[in-house]
Protein 1
Amino acid sequence: MTRLIIHAGSPLAGRCLIPGDKSISHRAVMFAAIAEGETTIHNFLDGHDCRATVAVMRELGVTIDEITPTDLVVHGRGLDGLIEPATVLDCANSGTTIRLLTGLLAGQNFTSFLTGTAQIRRRPMERIVRPLRGMGADIMGRQNGKYAPLGVRPARLRGVEYDLPVASAQVKSCVLLAGLYAKGLTIVREPGPARDHTERLLQAMGAPIEVLGDTIHIERPVEPLRSLEINVPGDMSSAAFLLAAGAIAPGSLLTIAGVGVNPTRTGIVDALLEMGAQISYENERTESGEPVADITVRGGDLRAATFGGRDLVTMIDELPILAVAATQAHGRTVIQDAGELRVKETDRIATTVSELRKLGARIEPTPDGLIIDGPTRLMGGPVESHGDHRLAMALTVAGLIAQGRTTVAGGEVTADSFPGFEETLRVLGGDVGVEA
Ligand code: S3P
């Protein structure tokens, strides 16, 4: 177990790059595997979760060359080229891996089994099993498909019309991938703008997918999916920790280069702007069908705000770090309509409250969100990651402004999504140490 040791220090300053987007990295490998020909992926996220996707795709017969840890070449096997895995597919701690893959496997002509860590085996799978069964999939799992391990038997799928009960990109993508193998049209309707990387990438690969507002249509391709060269943009969800750190540490001025600014992911930028943060985009461009920009943030005063509604999904992974920023904002910040936080890597409402309180934050849980009063002078102390990468990073940022010394136990999890997190903060002037 690694402990992160943080002291408040100088403002953050400078320019940095961040690792590739986690959601896009998973999808790039999975979709390249069922395309025809070779796909080169640059700036792949070399983190634990995406490594799990590479490992399971190899078990499914896919050859993946690692030119460097972040540059991969995937040798596509075509839509029907995957082979029956000889072992249980270990999705490690990655919800995206197990949920997207189950959709991809539901229409194959072989049997497969999927599992992951104890954390993954506690997370809800009924949300994907139910629509897949509605398409004719033959899936079993613990408690009649509520939890992994999951078993998938060969089945002939048929297209469905499915209204997502929650805005979830993992569920949406799972059904769309099954739709690639189904007879007839699959139609998915979403209640909020969940990240759309699956739609963008499949579209770029030539899949018959059509997006009409909240409704997505997909059909089995007649032509093979085309291979591509994919440049994965920097992960907004990783940038968020630096943006928040820069916004709350007085005197900071930092630029994060090459960040994906897909509007389904930029809720945290909008939220910080609404709180009065100074954030600007430069050098805006499009790479591999995704909008990208360099982002600059300056430290300053923040004011409280209320967040909720259908757009909350665009910052669902950023709420722990938003809560940290809110401890420094003047007034009462309210986060609502965020019940999904309860089924992430941890119950992030409970863990964010319990850990930030240890640092003196005035924060209350609600059934579907958080209430935070600020500003509060945080006091350093021992806190725990609970095995949750985003909580560990949010607490590290809190430590950068807390008086005295903060220690984050179980800090190794930052590498699930942001390998090099501590080093990046150090380069920007943060006082962050690592103790084995
Ligand atoms: C993801 C979707 C989101 C997000 C997760 C990554 C994806 O989960 O929280 O970190 O890559 O599709 P949900 O679909 O459960 O909201």
Protein 2
Amino acid sequence: MNRILENIRALFPALSQKMNGVPLVYLDNAATSQKPVEVLELLKKMNGEVNANVHRAMYELSDRSTELYEGAREKVRQFINAPERGNVIFTSGTTASINLVASSFCRRFLKAGDAIVITADSHHSNIVPWQLAAESIGAEIRLLPINTSKLSSCDYGAKGANCGTSQCVNGELLIDKLEELLSDGKVKIVAATHISNVLGLVNPVERIIKISHAYNVPVLLDGAQGIVHEKVDVQALDCDFYAFSAHKIYGETGVGVLYGKREILEEMPPYMGGGDMVGTVTYKKTTYAELPLKFEAGTPNFIGASSLKPALEYAEYLREPEVRKVLKEEESKIKRYMFNALACEVGDVEIYGVGDDGFESEKKIPLFSFNVKGCNAGDIAQLLDKMGFAVRTGMMCAEPLLDSFGVNSVVRASFASYNTVEEAEKFIAAINRAKSMLL
Ligand code: PLP
């Protein structure tokens, strides 16, 4: 194994444990990534030492925790290139960030008869909050569809003996339909997935934003997966909101970020009321704190949020040219190997999310959702677990998307910076074994 990869793996204690008596192969990174030692150390230090409520007290320990909390906010600002810290709101996760916008933005800017566009590849977190808002206002949800056409894996360039037995669902967004959805002037916000947690395809978000802005419609990006795999510059993208979770990018669980443009956030009413989000309070009327605290009612998860500093520093380390080169090479090998091996060696497989440019494309992340014909996805995952593999199975919190493929469950293997081609090879051997046990 390459020295850089070896060093990276050594940073993650969770990777060296055994499950069911065999070494763990962790391939559920799209759900939650493991944490490097720097993050674990910070969490230990804050829980054991720097544990005092932020913003409120006139004593040294509270100053220290506030410094770590606000330092993490500054790190997030730099990482996504937000203009100022006021644009960076800490929440409990992507879900909370989207709920905040769906509730507060829609209350302020939508009326009965208006519409909201969401992308068909959305996670439930980018569907249900908009449905709740739309129902309460009398607004309509419109769908930007995806290409559900299915082709033989040979047509996508898979090479091997049983290639013709496997099928691939394209999964790309039908971006040309967006103008049609916007043209009657009723749409007040577009909420798009940056990278789908089922398809692993990087959506053309620049185009979505450009087209939507031409109709004066702001855009929220669900960046739960996007923040991990793409370099996100919110100013260059010109998105109006960007939502992500810390636990998918090497940080603590129960923490997320909402980036928003100041001029829109200023207009939006608070989402929740309570301590820390106020200016002055009387029994009759309250004025609100400046951004970002206006949207951070109550004691925040200051320990979890602080983990974003070391977590994002690790993510930045992965972008150093020498490291990036090694990781990109490994990722390309993993993608090529997994696609060909699933389609041809395992065979009789249906793969979801290939895209017009195929698996080798930069627009496909190393995430593989599939079904083996004749095998129940849950049964496969259970057998894999016995062999030490952690993968996701089920609806992936994307029931409508799976419905559009005519399935109610998939197996998903999602790779992170610390996964290797050797693990991919072991995974394919384990799938073959599971298949032979189930058929
Ligand atoms: N959006 C996408 C694309 C996701 O992959 C996820 C989590 O899997 C979410 C939203 C929700 O993230 P969280 O549960 O951290 O709020």
